[in-house]
Amino acid sequence: MDRISEAVAATRAGRAVAVRNRYAGAWSTRYPAVHGSGLHIVKHGSFWLIPPSGRPVLVHPGDAVFVPHGPEHGFSQVPLPFQDLPPAAAGERTPNLDPFDVEFVSCCYHLDRGQVHESFAGLPDVITLTIDDTAHPQVRVLADLLGEHAAADQPGNDIALPAIVDLLLVHLLRAWHDQPAAATVSAFHSWPQFTDPDIAQVLQVVRENPHQPWTVQQLSGLARMSRATFARRFADMMGETPSGYLLHRRLNHGAQLLRFTDRPLVSIARQLGYSTEFSFAAAFRREFGIAPGRFRHRERSIAQS
Q1: Which residues contact 281 (CB under 8 A, 6 or more apart)?
Q2: Torsion from C-alpha of 118, 206, 277, 270, nearest 10 degrees
Q3: Integer Cα distance of 299 and 305 in angstroms
Q4: CA dihedral (32, 126, 289, 298) positive or negative
Q5: Tens of pLDDT along 265-293?
Q6: 3-178 in CATH: which number?
Q7: Rounded Cα gap, residues 189 and 123, in angstroms
Q8: 124-146: pLDDT as tens digits
Q9: pLDDT higher than threshold 90 for residue 247
Q10: Domain with CATH 1.10.10.60 in the chain
Q11: Is 120 helix (H, G, I), strand (E, B) or coil?
Q12: 3-state SS, residue 173
């Protein structure tokens, strides 16, 4: 599986929500921090992105605001201090104003207990990207479709919204990947470049051999470091311990096997290095908040709808 597919598949383990936002006159709003990844696409009008710290950024129609780690952020008609923004009500739609000055669609994957994919490691908290309609025409079409489904509760939304959000993430990650290396830090640029080549080599080996029951000792040997040095440098670069990363990686691979294969749980458990299907099921439930059998049934139901 390629890295874009892998990142989106890991993200979609959560719950997708979306709203269409329309404002007129003076307005401002603040989004709370969430455990997940969020996305806003500007469809009409220009307004200010307000980060918790740093300078406001003016966004225009066609711009996307990607929030890979889910920190708090806000928007406003005029640049304001972040602490002056009123909180947005969770899941509440703005009035269906017409005429309106600005319109943007927002979506988010709440990850419950899953982890944001490693491809987002090291990215800024809030990132803006100007979409080239010629190079990536699908983004505008998908944003329009998302806006229609987010504007009101409609039959099939539980199936449609995750599918649309998936596609939006795929095309935005492609646009990110296509950006020149000279792009600024406030925009999507390229896949994150891990600063430690020895750790990066270990990550590549793990990605290419996810079925191996890796131990921290084995990985430190691949990096040609002592276990203590490896653990410290790994945590500095990835923001988590090697053991935590291996656990998340192993269970994310298990989620893919549940989605895309018919293999029994006992077979998946053994491939991932668990002694029994019960130990695998317990670990999976802790990570994703759902039993592996129910997860497989849910994902199959979505795919067949």
Answers
A1: 265, 269, 291, 292, 293
A2: 170
A3: 10
A4: positive
A5: 999 998 888 889 999 999 998 888 889 99
A6: 2.60.120.280
A7: 10
A8: 677 787 777 777 788 778 888 88
A9: no
A10: 197-304
A11: helix
A12: helix
**What does the DSSP assignment read for 57-105?**
EEE-TTEEEEETT---EEEESS---GGGSPBPPTTPPPP--SS-SEEEE
**H helix or E strand, kind and range, residue 109:** strand 102-110
Tokens of 291: 């039993």
87 token code pair: 């909180």
Report the run of H or E that residue 48 belongs to, with start and end.
strand 47-50
CB 197 within 8 A of CB 223: no
To which residue do tokens 């699908």 refer?
Answer: 138
Tokens found for residue 215: 């131990």
The pTM of the full predicted model, rounded to 2 decimals, is 0.57
By the 8 A CB rule, do 261 and 276 touch?
Answer: no
Q: Which residues pair with 39 in a beta bridge?
A: 66, 107
Which residue intervals of the chain bear CATH 2.60.120.280? 3-178
CA distance linking residue 14 with residue 141, whole number of Å:
24
Pairing of strands 15-23, 63-67: unpaired
CATH number of this structure's domain 197-304? 1.10.10.60
Q: How far apart are the C-alpha atoms of 28 and 49, rounded to whole Å?
A: 10
Helices (DSSP H) in the chain: which residue ranges? 3-11, 138-151, 157-178, 197-208, 216-222, 227-238, 242-260, 265-271, 277-288, 292-304
Report cis status (omega within 30 of 0) of the bond before 71. no
> For residues 40 and 48, what is the distance between their CA atoms, to the nearest angstrom?
13
Cα 239 from chain centre: 16
Q: Beta strand 127-130 with 57-59: parallel, antiparallel or unpaired? A: unpaired
Cα 227 off chain centre by: 31
- Distance (Å) of CA 246 to CA 16, 111, 115, 185, 218: 26, 18, 12, 29, 12
